[in-house]
Amino acid sequence: MNLKSLILKNFRAYQSETQIEFDQLTTIIGKNDIGKSTILEALEIFFNNQTVKIESNDANINSTDKIVEITCEFTDYPDKLSIDTSSQTSLEDEFLLSVDKTLVIKKRIDCGKKTPSVDVFILANHPTEKEVANLLELKEKDLQAIIRSKSLDSKLKGNPTMRKAIWNSTEDLKLQTVEIPVSKPKEDAKRIWEQIEAFLPIYALFQSDRSSSDKDNEVQDPMKAAIATAISEVQKEINDIQKKVKERAEEIANNTHQALQDIDKTLASKLDPKFQPPTPAKWNGLFSIQLDTDDGIPLNKRGSGVRRMILVSFFKAEAERRLRTSAKQNIIYAIEEPETAQHPNNQKVLIESFKSLANESDCQIILTTHSPGLASELPINSLRFVSRNDSNSLTIEFGEDVFPKIAKTLGVTPDSRVKVLLCVEGPTDVIALCCLSKSLRTKYTELPDLENDERIAFVLMGGSTLKHWVNQNYLQELNKPEFHLYDNDVSTYQNWIDKINERDDASCGQLTQKLEIENYLHKDAIKIGFDINIEIPDQLNSDGKSTPRIFAEAYSNKVGFSNPIKESKAKKFLADRAFPNMTAEMVEQRDPFGEVKGWFEKLNELME
Fold first, then answer.
1. How far apart are CA 484 and CA 480, in angstroms?
2. Nearest CA to 454 among 422, 502, 496, 406?
3. What is the DSSP letter of 64?
């Protein structure tokens, strides 16, 4: 199940109903103490209520109402639910989906009590016709009575089947969005909720205000799990030890009893040893692990940035272990201020790993930040801006209109060192061009190093990061020349290139002569990265397939996927693991006429 949105009402600073939308990667931005962490902690309360627990003072202080509502909306919910061994149903058949065919779960928490109580509801487009509105709460005999009263098939068995027949026989169900209570013990409503709960994503929260030591749970839990796993693998040896200890203890007890008999037979007629071997938990407790890093330096003695980076890694490992050992299908990583105590280079490493994780179908990433450096590297469609409106209420905005506000709040400004804007379609083009320039520079040192040359700013025309958006919009006013390079797979692109070349400034553009940037890859680069042999055409192959599609099918066959991965994911894989293997010789074999070298020579010309 994927988290689509969260709605908060009367929870801490969020007094009025406030909604935030989530993508695979979502970054919450705002000033200090504006309510970023509140969003992550509300989700922790919704999913776990452990790392952060709901408290009586969590209701908004300006409200007399002590009822808090935390509502989550999900997509990719299970197709089928099993109420019992003989009855299968679905959320759609039970009218438990919203008008938009999403699953919406509301937790209503009474914070007026010393220990807050929680009721769970599903908000669904559900029948409200009086006679059929509460079928989920009825027992089997009650449903059978309705079946008889409506002269339906008396042989119908199973509550889901009877409910479906009753609803189908009703002329007007009067469907409306209503709250359906599911947490109280009311027949199938309760059973369905228990099924849904098992499919909810694992939610793992890594907070910013932590000591970052090797005593943290994120460290100790994986280590304890490792110890438990190791003990389970040597259980036979442990059993042998326990058997020998038992035999020796019994021998000693018998010898002691015999000696006692020799002294005074009236003291004890027998000594019967009751051997109790250690439980698995006690065996686990016999061992502990302290983490030492390079040169035997304990983790606790390393710098705060290193400690935090290691703990983020342990956090990820522990969350994934929980996913492997449960029936859950998805995981949500929520990380507060990952930039804390990190060098800018480490921040980039973290961001790239978050982006990579977010590409996995079973993973969502939620971050908070107020760092301009970190936010500048994030996709702009992932950004959510928390601020107060004119009435001092919290609002959460996203979309192009909010980017100037984010830039102003974080202090993101155009880089004055930029001389040329390199406009491409997407992020995989950036990686590919950086790798191609690096490989050619081993032979032609005068070419620019796109990965490190601060005079060149990438602008992603098909989706961008905040940094690129800022550079694009602000640098236009500085009359910086633009070099546009697009793939040759869309016919309308030529019209755009023609308009750019008609400008009266130094800006220019061209389409790739091959179909896409991936067509410039050498097959040996793919072989090194994936141990896959494929032929790479200049355009489409004889079957009409693009290079990303050819690779997607070959890769999926190799790893045993039943369906090929998407082309977008194939492009990302090739960018990350094939383009870095390209050498100057490979580039020139795939491009004997020097087209790629010509792109970089043009950039040099524009910078001059």
1. 13
2. 422
3. S
Q: What angle do CA 385, 388, 389 make, to 5 degrees?
A: 110
Task: Count Cβ atoms within 10 A of the Cβ of residue 233 and give its class: 0-12 exposed, 13-18 middle, 19 or more buried.
Answer: exposed
Query: How is 395-447 classified by DSSP, letter by letter?
Result: EEE-SGGGHHHHHHHHT----TT--EEEEESSHHHHHHHHHHHHHHHTT-TTS
3-state secondary structure of 535: coil
The helix (H) or strand (E) run that includes residue 24 is none
Please tell me the distance from the alpha carbon of residue 415 to that of residue 423, in angstroms, as a whole number. Answer: 16
Dihedral (CA of 496, 499, 501, 506) sign = negative
User: Are the C-beta atoms of 308 and 342 separated by less than 8 Å?
Assistant: yes
**For tokens 């994911």, what's the residue?**
569
Report which of residues 398 and 588 the model is more confident about: 588
Calculate the alpha carbon distances from 43 to 40, 202, 203, 400, 457 in Å: 5, 11, 8, 26, 37
Are 339 and 11 contacting, i.e. CB atoms less than 8 angstroms apart? no
Query: Tell me: the pLDDT tens digits for 487-535?
Result: 998 888 898 889 889 888 888 999 999 999 999 999 999 999 999 999 9
Closest CA to 206 of 223, 219, 224: 219
